[in-house]
């Protein structure tokens, strides 16, 4: 069964994945984190992700995250930025979800599952791997 409470982190300076073992939170802000080697990272030096912060693209074995820049093969000249939040297309009512914003014009378009079959990443990707799930002692 998939775990819904797993947290991932990426070190800003190296874009390296960190499998966290401990978080220090103050007033809902992550101020520090530790990894399995007991290395401590300041909260401002890492980006934290949960499974809801990315979409897995099976054909590419990569994760699509907010801020990624992509090309769609059927529109190879147009670059897009991946976004998540409230958006509206062509004056339709706003909906919450994943969408694309064209660069540089800022045109909004929905992100569809079928787009996963035709996208190419522009931004370098960080590979996420599931940390080993450690069962608490009985």
Strand percentage: over 45%
Secondary-structure element pattern, one letter each: EEEEEEEEEEEEE
Radius of gyration: 17 Å
Strand order of the largest sheet: 12-11-10-9-13
Give the overall form: elongated
Query: What is the percent of helical residues?
Result: under 10%
Number of β-strand runs: 13
Total individual domains:
2
Distance between the termini: 20 Å
Mean pLDDT: 80
Low-confidence stretches: none
Number of helices: 0
Question: How would you describe this structure in keywords?
Answer:
138 residues, mainly beta, 2 domains, five-stranded antiparallel β-sheet, three-stranded antiparallel β-sheet
What is this entry, summarized?
This protein is an all-beta fold and 138 residues long. Helix content is 0%, strand content 49%.
Describe this structure in words.
This protein has 138 residues and is an all-beta fold. It folds into 2 domains: 42 residues; 67 residues, no CATH class. The chain is 0% helix and 49% strand. The protein has no helices and 13 strands. It is elongated, with a radius of gyration of 17 Å.
Task: Give the helix/strand layout.
Blueprint: E1 8-11, E2 17-18, E3 20-26, E4 29-35, E5 40-42, E6 46-49, E7 54-57, E8 62-65, E9 69-72, E10 75-87, E11 95-103, E12 108-110, E13 119-121
Antiparallel strand pairs: 1-2, 1-6, 3-4, 4-5, 7-8, 9-10, 9-13, 10-11, 11-12
């Amino acid at each position: 069964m998939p775990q819904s409470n797993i947290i991932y982190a990426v070190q800003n300076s190296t874009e390296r994945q960190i499998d966290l073992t401990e978080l220090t939170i103050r007033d809902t802000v992550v101020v520090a984190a530790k990894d399995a080697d007991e290395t401590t990272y300041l909260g401002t030096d890492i980006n934290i992700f949960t499974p809801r912060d990315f979409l897995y693209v099976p054909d590419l074995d990569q994760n699509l995250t907010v801020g990624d820049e992509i090309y769609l093969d059927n529109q190879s000249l147009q670059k897009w930025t991946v976004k998540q939040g409230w958006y509206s297309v062509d004056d339709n009512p706003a909906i919450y979800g994943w969408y694309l914003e064209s660069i540089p014009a800022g045109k909004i378009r929905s992100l569809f599952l079928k787009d996963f079959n035709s996208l190419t990443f522009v931004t370098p990707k960080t590979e996420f791997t599931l940390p080993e799930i450690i069962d608490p002692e009985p």
